[in-house]
Amino acid sequence: MKKKFKVGLLGATGIVGKTFLRVLHERDFPVSSLFLFASSRSAGQTADFGGEKIIISELTHENVMCGMDVAFFAVDGDLSREYAPVLAKNGCLVVDNSSAWRTDPEVPLVVPEVNGEEAFKHKNIIANPNCSTAQAVVALNPLHLAYGIKRIVYSTYQSVSGATIKGMEDLERTLAGEPHKFFPYPIAGNCIPHIDTFGSDGYTGEETKMIFETKKIMRAPQLKITATTVRVPVFVGHSESINVEFEKPFDIDELKKVLANAPGVTVTDDPSANLYPTPLAAAGSDDVYVGRIRRDASVESGVNLWVVSDNLRKGAATNAVQIAELVLGVNAGSKN
Amino acid sequence: MKKKFKVGLLGATGIVGKTFLRVLHERDFPVSSLFLFASSRSAGQTADFGGEKIIISELTHENVMCGMDVAFFAVDGDLSREYAPVLAKNGCLVVDNSSAWRTDPEVPLVVPEVNGEEAFKHKNIIANPNCSTAQAVVALNPLHLAYGIKRIVYSTYQSVSGATIKGMEDLERTLAGEPHKFFPYPIAGNCIPHIDTFGSDGYTGEETKMIFETKKIMRAPQLKITATTVRVPVFVGHSESINVEFEKPFDIDELKKVLANAPGVTVTDDPSANLYPTPLAAAGSDDVYVGRIRRDASVESGVNLWVVSDNLRKGAATNAVQIAELVLGVNAGSKN
Question: What pTM value is reported for the model?
Answer without folding.
Answer: 0.97
